[in-house]
Amino acid sequence: SRQVLLARRPEGWPEHDDFEPVTRDLPELGEGEVRVANEFVSVDPYMRGKMDDRESYTPPYALGEPLTGAAVGRVVASRHPELSEGTLVLHQQGWRDAAQGRGEEFRAVPEVPDVPTSAYLGVLGGTGLTAYVGLLDIARMQPGETVFVSAAAGAVGSVVGQIARVKGAGRVVGSAGSPEKVRTLTERYGFDAGFDHHDGPAADRLAEVAPDGVDVYFDNVGGEQLEAAIGALNRYGRVACCGAISAYNATEPPLGPRNLGRVVTHSLTLRGFIVSDHLDRQPDFLEEMGPWLREGRVRAEETVVDGVEHLVDAFLVLLRGANTGKMVVRVG
Ligand code: NDP
């Protein structure tokens, strides 16, 4: 199995030398175990947090150990009664091309006609559920409302915008990191308008695309855009605090928004969430997302990097915005 170890903990932006690709022989298959050939593995921003030696909502990666994360693959050898060869499975032994372990660690998932198996890492997986729970349960978006999403061309953000549309948002606006991405927002995902977060004060750009203010802000980024959103929120506005990628590689904790007083004066709600605390919503999510995908109301967008040898590259450039939609690595 070709895998990637965490060689040392990154300081600030991660570099190639923080990682070590290795090839390891897999042991003989034990009773109740399966061997899986991965087809696609996921690289995600949250993995940056696990590379620090810091208490968080999940334990940090161990130094010198293979990295883990979501992966989808096919059983190629089995000593487990319920997982026969050829079964498509979703599991957490990512960052490698071949995985092996107890059958219980691998969840069989159905093939969806016309949808690539990588969708289980994106729109049909944790990414899609994050968008669904954050927008509908945490921010409680109502029909007719104005929604603002940051990192809107990314994996979570692009799905948030599309769900907002399907659920009857009045206006959907987003920010992204290049003119091409901003065009994608309106041309592919049904946003009404967008802006490039490199184009000067976010508060000014947001006021241009949402002149009547914002009711719901889906925050993937934190920092300046969070401050801009708080400044633009209408009375009783809500923020789903999903992530703060603008600070993930910072070596000093960033300053918070300077306008938190508005939380009081405008009766705002800022609510954080971790998607794994909301797995009870998975059945509802899949019941709605399946038809949305089939009917073309939601697009399963992704950026595919080819080859297990490019896993580290894919992770490094993800943090700098090289992806549109979900970033996945094809290893099969
Ligand atoms: P994305 O596909 O959105 O990829 C990350 C994107 O972040 C990049 O493409 C880049 O796009 C953008 N970005 C990077 N640096 C900055 C910056 N300084 N300012 C603004 N944008 C930046 O990743 P995901 O969809 O997987 O994750 C999005 C967010 O959701 C992350 O914060 C992640 O941690 C969070 N998350 C939270 C979960 C939860 O349970 N709470 C679950 C899953 C994800 P661009 O070119 O537009 O800058």
TrEMBL record:
* Classification lineage: Bacteria, Bacillati, Actinomycetota, Actinomycetes, Propionibacteriales
Please give the superkingdom of this protein's source. Bacteria
Keyword annotations from UniProtKB, A to Z: Oxidoreductase
Q: Which InterPro entries match?
A: ADH-like_C, ADH_N_2, ER, GroES-like_sf, MDR_fam, NAD(P)-bd_dom_sf
Q: Where is this region: Disordered?
A: 1-24
What Gene3D superfamilies does the record point to? Medium-chain alcohol dehydrogenases, catalytic domain, NAD(P)-binding Rossmann-like Domain
Q: What is this protein called?
A: NADP-dependent oxidoreductase
Q: Where is the composition biased (Basic and acidic residues)?
A: 8-24
Pfam families documented for this protein: ADH_N_2, ADH_zinc_N
Oxidoreductase as a keyword of this entry, yes or no, is: yes
Xref: SMART domains = PKS_ER
Q: Where is the signal peptide?
A: none
> GO MF terms on file?
oxidoreductase activity, acting on the CH-CH group of donors, NAD or NADP as acceptor
Q: Where is the Enoyl reductase (ER) domain?
A: 12-329
Provenance organism: Desertihabitans brevis
